[in-house]
Design goal:
The structure holds two protein chains of two kinds. By secondary structure, chain A is mainly alpha-helical. Chain A has 17 helices and six strands. Chain A has a two-stranded antiparallel ribbon. Chain A has a two-stranded antiparallel sheet with strand order 3-6. Chain A has a two-stranded parallel sheet with strand order 4-5. The longest helix of chain A has 30 residues, at 44-73. The N and C termini of chain A lie far apart (68 Å). Chain B is an alpha/beta fold. Chain B folds into two domains: 1-81 and 172-254, 3-Layer(aba) Sandwich (Rossmann fold), CATH 3.40.50.300; 93-171, no CATH class. Chain B is built from ten helices and ten strands. Chain B has helices at 44-51, 74-79, 97-104, 113-117, 121-140, 156-168, 186-203, 214-220, 238-243, 245-252; strands at residues 4-15, 18-29, 33-37, 59-64, 67-68, 82-84, 174-178, 206-210, 223-228, 231-236. In chain B, the strands form two sheets. In chain B, strands 6-7-8-3-9-10 form a six-stranded mixed sheet, with helices on both faces. In chain B, strand 9 and strand 10 form a beta hairpin. The two termini of chain B are 34 Å apart. The chains are: A mainly alpha, B alpha/beta. Chain A binds chain B through residues 282, 285-286, 288-291, 293-294, 296-297, 300-301, 303-312, 416-419, and chain B through 52, 54, 73-75, 78-79, 83-84, 86, 90-96, 98-99, 102-107, 109-111, 113, 116-117, 119, 131, 134-135, 138, 144, 147-148, 166-167, 169-170. Chain B: One of its GO terms (biological process) is L-alanine transport. Chain B: InterPro entries: AAA+_ATPase, ABC_AA/LPS_Transport, ABC_transporter-like_ATP-bd, ABC_transporter-like_CS, BCA_ABC_TP_C, P-loop_NTPase. Chain B: Residues 6-254 form the ABC transporter domain. Chain B: This is ABC transporter ATP-binding protein. Chain B: One of its GO terms (cellular component) is plasma membrane.
């Protein structure tokens, strides 16, 4: 008897909770009349829906134990066999999948629409950022919440060099990478003796400092307006604009074809793809290098590392610097693509999205990060009408992931070095 | 008498109001096996932590080959050839046995970024040598057949042996073992004894060891230090310690 009263109580309060939450959020509408706000009741349909939801919740809470029992009795759904999951996370399999993805990525811009290629370019920027942050978070185990700061450093490096000295994209790309790496090194030096949460908070602060600095150095960076009219990348001196700047030739004139603005978009896409491939190559080598092993060892046991004569600070710093370097590359490409940089592109939410990509994909996993970047960037683009609910969707996605796959979409199996008999 | 490789004088370590180590002096000759014994909580591990740079001693000098090393950080001391194991095994559990040994060689490898990126011949050679060195030691500690298994899945005795092998990868001069026989069965303890003898005789390693297994300590040590409540109680050869009245009273019990 007591059990059923308890259930009744739970069900009643659950239903009450539904009303308490749903009525103020959906049942009341604020509308602006002149300069005043007025509260109106919602339409009867909405109110009836809320009531129906409350009743449904009541019934569900009351009978879910029976349902759960029935569920368990019914034959279980065919799930992915364990072997397939293990197979998918094998480094060799992931390599082949990545190779396949690369081939698809190389071919499809020549068939896809202009808008689609543009979004794909954006996705590739986030893939690059995700892979870069993955070095810091996934491989070295350092939680960095200010990663966007290095992205900003890269973007502004190119923007400023282009604006003040008229340097081209290809010259600035390595410089931007190096500048970001330098910032990573300088910021990392005092910070990396901290651990875990403390490190996260300090890096968060550094990310914000860089952004606020960029906004307030009005004389150099143009303050909140940023820098506009940044030169686009060229192909061996060939410009993709309709009319070339002085001393330059345009792509369509050189090849004697009609001007088409799609060429520029596809060209930018291919540069982004090239940068991603470079990143993938470097990370794959790093995993098989002594430094990659040292990162993993350090993540597992810092004290043992010290006892073996490894300097933890240097090893962490190398991860931090390398990660920052890739953010710098991504940043300078971002500046070149947008033609405009402003501090508002580098807010904390960007760091959060990049970190979400890494966590969603599975820490340390490269294929996972590519998939997660596609999901995280494509989803809001596809569901533009639900733009207001974007954060809500991210939240739901995160909760579902935590329940369904806490280890990420495709967690990494590190390539193990084997002792051959 | 040969030259002292490690000369510790008046080592003290104070944690707030607690004087954990009080004026401990050690004199360790090259290629000796020296044991430190004492009841639980006597401060033996604290001495180890001071010697290996995990604690900064409050006072006292530590001379390695005549050079002061007190106050250096842990990894710097390890680089000078003083390497330790831990009371609770500290392997990299998710890495395979052979990878544990490769990581330990980090300092001796070609860590040049570009060399690794482009797999230069020098880089390949360095990796190959590291693998050969690791394979050699896996064989020495009899772990070749589990080389590719994650270290965390090995049996306890195997983990202990792997940890010693991992220390040997750094090419140490002094090896400090913190209770290496804890949790081992008599058979494994015999193997350990043979291993320590091998390290000393074949690889010219000086061994400093903390151990509670009196049988092991008495049979293997050249010299024994007894510590009680942070203060040195006695030192001497196993024979002298066995018959030392204070030691019998404090530690071995009236027999």
């Amino acid at each position: 008897m007591t059990l059923s009263t308890k259930r009744l109580k739970t069900a009643f309060f659950s239903a009450l909770l539904v009303i308490a939450v749903a009525y103020p959020v959906m049942g009341l509408k604020l509308s602006t009349v002149g300069i005043k706000l007025e509260v109106h009741g919602a339409s009867p349909t909405v109110l009836w829906t809320i009531a129906a939801c409350a009743v449904a919740m009541f019934v569900w809470q009351l009978f879910r134990h029976h349902l759960a029992a029935g569920w368990a009795a019914s034959p279980s759904l065919p799930s992915i066999p364990a072997g397939a999951g293990g197979f998918l996370t094998l480094p060799s399999t992931q390599r082949w999948i990545i190779l396949g993805l690369v081939i698809v990525a190389l071919v499809w811009p020549f068939f896809g629409s202009r808008g689609a290629v543009d979004i794909a370019t954006l996705i590739l920027i986030y893939v690059m950022l995700g892979l870069g942050l993955n070095i810091v978070v996934g491989l070295a185990g350092l939680l960095d919440l200010g990663y966007v700061g290095f992205y900003a450093v890269g973007a502004y490096s190119y923007a400023l060099l282009s604006h003040y000295y008229g340097l081209g994209f290809w010259v600035c790309l390595p410089i931007a990478g190096m500048m970001a790496a330098l910032f990573g090194f300088l910021l990392g030096f005092p910070v990396l003796r901290l651990r875990g949460d403390y490190l996260a908070i300090v890096t968060l602060g550094f990310g914000e400092i860089i952004r606020i600095l960029l906004r307030n150095l009005t004389g150099i960076t143009g303050g909140p307006n940023g820098i506009s009219n940044i030169e686009k990348p060229s192909l061996f001196g060939l410009s993709f604009e309709r009319r070339a700047a002085e001393g330059m030739q345009t792509f369509h004139e050189y090849f004697g074809i009609a001007y088409n603005s799609t060429y520029k978009v596809v060209f930018l896409y291919l540069i982004a793809l090239l940068l991603v491939l470079l990143t993938l190559f470097v990370i794959n080598r790093l995993l098989r290098m002594p430094i990659g092993r040292a990162w993993e060892a350090l993540r597992e046991d810092e004290i043992a590392c010290r006892a073996l004569g490894m300097n933890p600070t240097v090893i962490k710093l190398s991860a931090f610097t390398l990660g920052a370097c890739f953010a710098g590359f991504a940043g300078s490409f971002f500046a070149a693509r947008q033609g405009l940089v402003s501090p508002e592109s580098f807010t904390f939410i960007e760091s959060a999205i990049i970190l979400a990509i890494v966590v969603l994909g599975g820490m340390g996993s490269q294929l996972g990060i590519i998939l997660a970047a596609v999901v995280m960037i494509l989803l809001p683009e596809l569901a533009r009408e639900f733009n207001e609910y974007r954060m809500l969707m991210f939240g739901v996605l995160m909760v579902l992931m935590m329940i369904w796959r806490p280890q990420g979409l495709l967690p990494m199996q590190r390539p193990h070095l084997e002792l051959k008999p | 008498m040969s030259r002292a490789i490690l000369d510790v004088d008046g080592l003290s370590m104070r944690f707030g109001g607690l004087l954990a180590v009080n004026g401990v002096s050690l004199n360790i000759q090259e290629k000796q096996v020296v044991s430190m014994i004492g009841p639980n909580g006597a401060g033996k591990t604290t001495v180890f932590n001071c010697l290996t740079g995990f604690y900064r001693p409050t006072s006292g000098t530590i001379l390695l080959d005549g050079q002061p090393i007190q106050g250096l950080s842990g990894h710097m001391i390890a680089r000078q050839g003083v390497v330790r194991t831990f009371q609770n095994v500290r392997l990299f559990k998710d890495m395979t046995a052979v990878e544990n040994l490769l990581v330990a060689q980090h300092r001796h490898l070609n860590t040049n970024f570009l060399a690794g990126l482009f797999k230069t011949p020098a880089f390949r050679r360095s990796e190959r040598e590291a693998m050969a060195h690791a394979a050699h030691w896996l064989e020495q500690v009899n772990l070749t057949d589990v080389a590719n298994r994650p270290a965390g899945t090995l049996a306890y005795g195997q983990q202990r042996r792997l940890e010693i092998a991992r220390c040997m990868m750094t090419r140490p001069r002094i090896l400090m073992l913190d209770e290496p026989a804890a949790g081992l069965n008599p058979r494994e303890t015999e193997d350990l004894k043979a291993l320590i003898a091998l390290l000393r005789n074949e690889y010219n390693v000086t061994v400093l060891l903390i151990e509670h297994d009196m049988h092991l300590v008495m049979s293997i040590s050249d010299h024994i230090y007894v510590i009680n409540q942070g203060t040195p109680l006695a030192d001497g050869t196993p024979e002298q310690i066995r018959t030392h009245p204070d030691v019998i009273k404090a530690y071995l019990g009236e027999a």
